[in-house]
């Protein structure tokens, strides 16, 4: 059974940094595209960052230059490094992995990120 566990959320002051991790088990992680989404109260879930199986990344305009998504297939993990955090980055962040060429995907449980002074 494929499982996905997120970690690394928390509270930080504006300008601070956090690193979110997404760890998969029970599957060949290298065959999955990895995406991070976030959702704030009253807002729709939005795509924040994406990394394909070749390591190519893409980011929402709102986080470009501040967030970096990487993956380590040997460790079955993906990490979202978030720098220069702003109050508007406050949200629950969700990791999603999708098996390439299929519609099969799994969501993590979500981790809260709060940016506040």
Reported for the largest beta sheet, the result is:
7 strands, mixed
Task: Give the CA-CA distance, first to last residue.
Answer: 41 Å
- Uncertain runs with pLDDT below 50, 5 residues or more? none
Q: Strand share of the residues? A: over 45%
Classify the helix fraction into a percent range: under 10%
Order of helices and strands: EEEEEEEEEEE
Q: What is the overall pLDDT average? A: 96
By DSSP (H or I, 4+ residues per run), the number of helices equals 0
Number of strands: 11
Structural class: mainly beta
- Global morphology: globular
Radius of gyration: 14 Å
Overview of the molecule:
- By secondary structure, the protein is an all-beta fold.
- The chain has no helices and eleven strands.
- Strands 2, 4, 5, 6, 9, 10 and 11 form a seven-stranded mixed beta sheet that branches.
- The protein is globular.
SSE blueprint:
Elements: E1 3-7, E2 10-12, E3 18-25, E4 32-39, E5 46-51, E6 57-59, E7 67-72, E8 77-82, E9 91-99, E10 105-107, E11 111-115
Parallel strand pairs: 2-11
Antiparallel strand pairs: 1-3, 3-8, 4-5, 4-9, 5-6, 7-8, 9-10, 9-11
Keywords:
single chain, 117 residues, mainly beta, 7-stranded mixed β-sheet, 4-stranded antiparallel β-sheet, 53% strand
The gist of it:
The chain has 117 residues and is mostly beta strands. The protein is 0% helix and 53% strand. The chain has strands at residues 3-7, 10-12, 18-25, 32-39, 46-51, 57-59, 67-72, 77-82, 91-99, 105-107, 111-115.
């Amino acid at each position: 059974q494929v499982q996905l566990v997120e970690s690394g959320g928390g509270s930080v002051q504006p300008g601070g940094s956090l690193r979110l991790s997404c760890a998969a088990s029970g599957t060949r992680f290298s065959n999955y595209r990895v995406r991070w989404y976030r959702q704030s109260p009253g807002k729709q879930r939005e795509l924040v960052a994406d990394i394909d199986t070749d390591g190519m990344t893409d980011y929402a305009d709102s986080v470009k230059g501040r967030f970096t998504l990487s993956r380590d297939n040997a460790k079955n993990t993906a990490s979202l490094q978030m720098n220069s955090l702003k109050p508007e980055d406050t949200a629950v962040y969700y990791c999603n992995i999708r098996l390439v060429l299929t519609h099969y995907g799994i969501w993590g449980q979500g981790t809260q990120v709060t940016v506040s002074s």
